[in-house]
C-alpha cells in the first residue's frame, strides 16, 4: 500500500505533491472579482522573487523607491537654501507612499487612484508646502488649498525666475512637493501592482531627478555620490525584482555592481566637471530693464515741491541717523545720472529676480557681523508704502532678506547686488508692506581710512563732462595727499563755498534751476555764484571725484529726522521713549549724496550739499552790514526771476504701453497654460504608461517575424481585450471553447457582478445585449476557427495570411468594444487586468505550440492543449 504525502504547494495546503517529472496541474483559481456572481478569474502571476514573503517584498520596494526619490530631489537643496525643503519633500514622499500602498491594497483603478492622490495633495499640501496659509501651520484652510492649486500652475515659473536661495514663502515649495508626492505614489503603485510592471517603477526616480536638475542650479549636493548610489541601488533592485538577479552567480553579480558603480562615478564626474550644465533658469531672462524708466534723480524737485504735504512711506525700526536708499547711479551720459547695463553681474542696471533671501553670501556676512558685534548693526525694519510711486523700493543698509506681505508682489521683486538697490516691476502699490532684514554698516572716519587707496572698480566712464569740472576738482584738491583727503576736500569746497536753494521762488528761495546734466553742473561750477540743492551738488562732486581717479556714484534716498542743515537729528530730537515708533517719511526728507569706494572699507558716504541755512540772501545781508573791500559781494538777484522749466520739475511718467501690458498678459497666460499642461500630463502619467504598455504588446505581436506567431498573437489580443472588458475566459480552454464562451458572454445577459459588497447594497446593473453583441460573438467564433486552421493546418501560414488574420482581428476587436457599455469600454482602456498575466508564460505556450504542430498532423491539438494546461496560460 502506497502512502501519498501531502505538502503545501502553490495550489494550496493538502494537495498531493506531484511526482518527479510530472507537470504540476493548475490549482483552483483564487476567489476574486470574477464575472458571474463571484466566479473564478485568472490567478495573478506569481512574483519572480522566490523565497521572499509578499509583505517583506513590499517593504523593500517602498524603502528603495522612497529613498531613491529623496536622493533624486537633493539637487533642489541649494535652490531653496537647505532645511526649508525638508518638510515638503519628506512629507510628500510619505504621502506618496501612503497613497501608493493604499491603492495597491484596495486595488483601485487608475482614475480612482488619481482622484485620491489629487485630493490628498491639495488638502495636505497646505501644512507641508504653504504652512503660512494654514492655522497654526498644521490645519489646512481654503487659502492653503488655493495656494497649492495656484502653485501647481505658477510655482514652476517662480522657481525658475527667482534667484536662489528661494526660501519658503508663498507657493514656492509646491513644485518640489508635487515631484515628491507624485513620483513616489506612481513608483510605489507600480512596484506593488504586478511583477511585470514592478521594474518599470525604477524609471520614476530618474524622471524626478531630471526635473530637479532642470529646476536646480549649477551647484548640486555631492553629484558623484548621489548619482552613483541612486544608479547602483535602482539597477540592482530592478534586476532583483525582474527575477534576473541570482545570488548563485557571484561573478555576474560582482560585474553588475562594478559596472553600475563605474557608470555612476563616471556620469557624476562628468556632471560635476560640466560647469556650464544646462538648467532652465539660465534660459529665462527677466524682462525688467530699469533704463526703460526715467532716472528718479531727475524728479528730485518733484519730491521737494510735495515737501511734507504727501506721506511717501512709513518706516519702523530704523536706527537713528540711518539713511533709506531709493536708487544708486554710476553712469553719467551728459544729461542724467542713471544705472549702467553692460551685461556684467556687477552692473548697476542688472537686476535679478530673488526670493525672500537676497543671497547666501549676504546671509553669511550678516551672521558674521552679528556674531562679532563689529562692522555694523543687524536690524529688522518694517516699511509701509503710502504715496510713493515708481518702481524703486526703499531699502536700508545691506539687505539680507526682503519679505513682502503680498505673494504676487514677492514674485515681482528684483535686486541688484552691485548697489543694493531693489525694484518692484509693475510699480509700487499704496498699502504695500514689507520687512527688511539688513545690516547697517558702521561708517569709518578719515583717521580709520588713513592712506587706504581707492578700490579698482570697473565703472562706466562719464560722458559729456563740462570743462569746469576738471579745473574745479584740481583747485579744490590741490593740497590733498591721500584719496580720502581728496574726497574730503571736494566735499568741503562745495559745502562751504556754495549756497543752498530749491529754486522755489514763490516761497522766497533764490532762483535755482533744476537738473543735474552737463549744462547745469557747468553753470554751477563755472558761474560767479554756486547755487543749488542736493541734485546739483551730488552730481558735481561725483564728476569731480571721477576726474581725480576716485570711484564715485550718486545715491538718492531719504534721511528721516534730518535738521535743516542736512545732519541727522540728535538724540534729544528723536523719540527716546519709544525708539521703535513708526516714522513718516515725506518729501522734506529727500536727499542725494555721494559714495566713494576705498580699499578695505567699501563705500563711504559724503554730503557735499551746503546747509539749508546757507543761502545767497543771508550772505548778501552779512556783506552789507560789515562791508570790507577784500570780500567779494555776491551779485544782486536778477529783476525777473527765472522760473524753473516745468518739464524738469514734473515727475516723469513711465507707464508701460498697452502693447507691452498686453504682451505681459499673454505671456502670463501662456506660462500658466504650459504649467497647467505639465501638471495635467503628470497626473495622466499612469494612464499613458498603461496605454504605452498595451500598444507595445500589440505591436510586438503584430510584427513577429514568424507568421504563425502573429496568428497566435492575434488571438491572444482578443483574449486580452476580453479580460479588460471583464469577460474572462477559462485559461485552459481551447480557442473554440473560449470563442463559444465569449459568444455566450456577448449574446446573453450576464448576471450582476458580485464584488464582495455588503448585502445591503444593490448589485451593479448590467446592460442587456443587443445586435452588436451577436455580431461580436460571431466575429470571435469565426476568428477562432481561422486561428485553429492556421495552427493545425497542413501548411504553414504565410505573411499574407497573417495580415489577413490581423485585419479580421481588428474587426472583431471593434465589434467587441461596440457591444460593451461606454463606461466599461473606457475602463477597459485604462485597466491593467490583461497586463497582470505573465508574457513570458504565453511566449512559452506559443513556442511549444509551434514545436508540437510542426507542419501539422494528428496529435498536434492534443500536444498544444497539454502544453497550454502545463503552463496555465490562456491560448
Mean pLDDT: 75
Helix fraction bin? 40-55%
Q: Quick one: how many beta strands?
A: 18
Shape, principal axes of CA atoms: elongated
Task: Compute the CA-based radius of gyration.
Answer: 40 Å
* Low-pLDDT runs: 1-47, 568-577, 619-633, 644-659, 753-768, 855-861, 866-875
**Which strand order do you get reading across the main beta sheet?**
9-12-6-1-16
User: How large is the count of helical segments?
Assistant: 30
Largest sheet: 5 strands, antiparallel
* Beta-strand content estimate: 5-15%
- Structural class comes to alpha+beta
End-to-end C-alpha gap = 40 Å
Q: How would you describe what is shown here?
A:
Among the domains are: 54-283, no CATH class; 297-443, no CATH class; 686-753 and 766-871, no CATH class. It has 875 residues and is of the alpha+beta class. Residues 1-47, 568-577, 619-633, 644-659, 753-768, 855-861 and 866-875 have low confidence and may be disordered. A hairpin with a 6-residue loop joins strand 10 and strand 11. The strands form five sheets. It has a five-stranded antiparallel β-sheet. Strands 8-2-15-17-18 form a five-stranded antiparallel β-sheet. It contains 30 helices and 18 strands. Keywords: Membrane, Transmembrane, Transmembrane helix.
Amino acid at each position: 500500500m502506497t502512502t501519498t504525502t501531502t505538502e503545501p504547494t502553490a495550489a494550496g495546503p493538502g494537495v498531493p505533491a506531484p511526482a518527479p517529472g510530472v507537470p504540476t496541474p493548475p490549482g483552483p483559481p483564487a476567489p476574486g472579482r470574477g464575472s458571474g456572481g463571484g466566479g473564478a478569474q485568472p490567478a495573478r502571476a506569481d512574483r519572480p522573487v522566490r523565497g521572499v514573503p509578499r509583505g517583506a517584498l513590499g517593504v523593500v520596494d517602498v524603502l528603495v523607491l522612497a529613498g531613491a526619490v529623496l536622493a533624486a530631489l537633493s539637487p533642489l537643496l541649494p535652490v531653496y537654501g537647505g532645511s526649508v525643503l525638508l518638510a515638503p519633500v519628506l512629507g510628500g514622499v510619505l504621502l506618496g507612499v501612503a497613497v501608493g500602498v493604499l491603492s495597491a491594497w484596495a486595488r483601485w483603478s487608475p482614475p480612482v487612484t488619481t482622484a485620491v492622490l489629487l485630493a490628498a495633495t491639495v488638502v495636505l499640501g497646505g501644512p507641508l508646502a504653504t504652512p503660512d496659509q494654514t492655522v497654526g501651520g498644521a490645519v489646512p484652510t481654503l487659502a492653503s488649498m488655493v495656494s497649492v492649486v495656484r502653485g501647481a500652475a505658477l510655482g514652476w515659473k517662480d522657481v525658475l525666475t527667482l534667484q536662489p536661495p528661494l526660501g519658503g514663502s508663498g507657493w514656492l515649495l509646491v513644485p518640489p512637493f508635487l515631484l515628491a508626492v507624485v513620483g513616489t505614489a506612481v513608483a510605489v503603485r507600480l512596484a506593488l501592482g504586478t511583477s511585470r510592471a514592478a521594474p518599470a517603477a525604477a524609471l520614476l526616480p530618474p524622471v524626478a531627478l531630471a526635473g530637479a536638475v532642470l529646476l536646480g542650479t549649477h551647484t548640486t549636493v555631492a553629484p558623484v555620490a548621489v548619482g552613483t548610489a541612486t544608479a547602483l541601488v535602482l539597477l540592482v533592485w530592478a534586476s532583483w525584482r525582474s527575477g534576473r538577479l541570482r545570488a548563485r552567480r557571484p561573478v555576474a553579480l560582482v560585474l553588475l555592481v562594478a559596472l553600475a558603480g563605474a557608470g555612476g562615478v563616471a556620469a557624476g564626474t562628468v556632471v560635476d566637471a560640466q560647469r556650464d550644465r544646462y538648467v532652465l533658469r539660465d534660459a529665462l531672462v527677466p524682462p525688467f530693464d530699469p533704463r526703460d524708466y526715467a532716472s528718479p534723480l531727475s524728479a528730485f524737485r518733484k519730491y521737494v515741491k510735495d515737501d511734507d504735504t504727501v506721506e511717501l512711506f512709513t518706516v519702523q525700526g530704523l536706527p537713528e541717523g540711518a539713511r533709506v536708499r531709493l536708487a544708486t547711479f554710476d553712469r553719467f551720459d551728459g544729461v542724467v545720472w542713471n544705472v549702467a547695463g553692460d551685461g556684467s553681474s556687477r552692473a548697476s542696471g542688472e537686476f535679478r529676480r530673488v526670493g525672500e533671501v537676497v543671497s547666501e553670501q549676504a546671509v553669511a556676512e550678516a551672521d558674521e557681523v552679528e556674531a562679532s558685534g563689529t562692522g555694523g548693526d543687524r536690524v529688522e525694519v518694517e516699511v509701509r508704502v503710502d504715496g510713493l510711486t515708481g518702481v524703486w523700493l526703499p531699502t536700508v543698509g545691506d539687505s539680507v532678506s526682503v519679505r513682502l506681505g503680498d505673494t504676487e508682489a514677492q514674485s515681482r521683486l528684483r535686486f541688484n547686488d552691485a548697489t543694493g538697490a531693489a525694484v518692484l516691476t509693475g510699480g509700487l502699490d499704496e498699502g504695500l508692506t514689507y520687512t527688511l532684514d539688513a545690516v547697517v554698516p558702521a561708517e569709518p572716519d578719515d583717521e580709520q581710512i588713513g592712506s587706504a587707496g581707492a578700490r579698482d572698480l570697473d565703472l562706466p566712464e562719464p560722458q559729456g563732462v563740462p570743462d569746469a569740472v576738471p579745473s574745479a576738482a584740481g583747485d579744490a584738491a590741490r593740497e590733498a595727499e591721500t584719496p580720502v583727503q581728496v574726497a574730503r576736500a571736494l566735499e568741503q569746497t562745495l559745502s562751504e563755498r556754495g549756497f543752498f536753494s530749491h529754486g522755489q521762488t514763490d516761497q522766497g528761495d533764490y532762483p535755482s534751476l533744476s537738473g543735474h546734466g552737463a549744462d547745469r553742473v557747468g553753470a554751477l561750477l563755472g558761474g560767479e555764484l554756486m547755487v543749488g540743492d542736493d541734485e546739483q551738488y551730488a552730481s558735481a562732486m561725483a564728476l569731480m571725484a571721477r576726474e581725480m581717479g576716485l570711484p564715485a556714484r550718486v545715491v538718492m534716498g531719504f534721511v528721516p529726522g534730518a535738521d535743516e542743515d542736512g545732519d541727522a537729528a540728535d538724540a534729544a530730537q528723536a523719540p527716546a521713549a519709544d525708539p521703535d515708533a513708526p516714522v513718516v517719511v515725506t518729501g522734506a526728507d529727500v536727499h542725494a549724496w555721494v559714495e566713494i569706494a576705498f580699499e578695505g572699507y567699501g563705500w563711504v558716504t559724503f554730503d557735499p550739499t551746503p546747509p539749508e541755512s546757507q543761502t545767497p540772501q543771508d550772505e548778501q545781508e552779512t556783506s552789507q552790514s560789515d562791508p570790507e573791500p577784500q570780500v567779494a559781494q555776491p551779485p544782486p538777484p536778477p529783476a525777473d526771476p527765472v522760473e524753473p522749466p516745468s518739464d524738469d520739475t514734473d515727475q516723469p511718467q513711465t507707464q508701460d504701453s498697452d502693447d507691452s501690458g498686453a504682451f505681459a498678459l499673454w505671456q502670463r497666460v501662456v506660462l500658466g497654460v504650459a504649467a497647467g499642461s505639465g501638471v495635467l500630463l503628470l497626473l495622466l502619467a499612469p494612464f499613458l504608461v498603461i496605454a504605452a504598455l498595451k500598444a507595445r504588446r500589440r505591436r510586438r505581436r503584430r510584427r513577429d517575424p514568424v507568421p504563425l506567431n502573429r496568428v497566435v498573437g492575434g488571438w491572444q489580443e482578443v483574449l486580452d481585450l476580453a479580460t479588460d472588458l471583464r469577460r474572462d475566459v477559462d485559461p485552459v480552454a481551447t480557442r473554440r471553447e473560449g470563442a463559444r464562451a465569449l459568444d455566450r458572454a456577448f449574446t446573453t445577459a450576464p448576471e450582476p457582478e458580485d464584488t464582495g459588497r455588503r448585502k445591503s447594497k444593490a448589485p451593479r446593473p448590467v446592460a442587456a445585449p443587443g445586435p452588436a453583441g451577436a455580431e461580436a460573438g460571431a466575429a470571435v467564433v469565426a476568428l477562432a476557427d481561422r486561428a485553429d486552421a492556421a495552427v493545425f493546418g497542413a501548411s504553414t501560414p504565410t505573411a499574407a495570411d497573417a495580415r489577413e488574420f490581423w485585419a479580421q482581428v481588428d474587426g472583431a476587436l471593434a465589434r467587441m468594444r461596440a457591444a460593451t457599455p461606454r463606461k466599461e469600454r473606457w475602463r477597459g482602456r485604462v485597466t491593467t487586468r490583461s497586463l497582470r498575466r505573465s508574457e513570458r508564460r504565453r511566449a512559452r505556450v506559443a513556442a511549444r505550440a509551434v514545436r508540437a504542430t510542426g507542419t501539422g498532423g494528428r496529435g498536434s491539438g492534443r500536444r498544444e492543449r497539454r502544453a497550454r494546461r502545463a503552463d496555465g496560460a490562456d491560448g
